[in-house]
Amino acid sequence: MNSHHHTKLVHEGRYAAEVEVDLIDTDTGWSPYLSLSDAQKLDDVRKALRGGDLKRASQLARVFQLLPVNV
Known about the structure:
Blueprint: E1 2-12, E2 15-25, E3 33-34, H1 36-50, H2 54-60, E4 62-65
Antiparallel strand pairs: 1-2, 2-3, 2-4
Helix pairs in contact: 1-2
């Protein structure tokens, strides 16, 4: 079993977050997958962004505000 760092993007409304997780590689057909704690971390970031709790989301991930581009 091997694991490697990966950055997952979470998008909610006007915000996006880069969440650092570990992907676990095994010899099974379900690989790669997240640990339970990393899956919960993604859910926590998503809930925080959805609720407007940028402080909490920033504790778990890099948070960005998305702005429209006027061309």
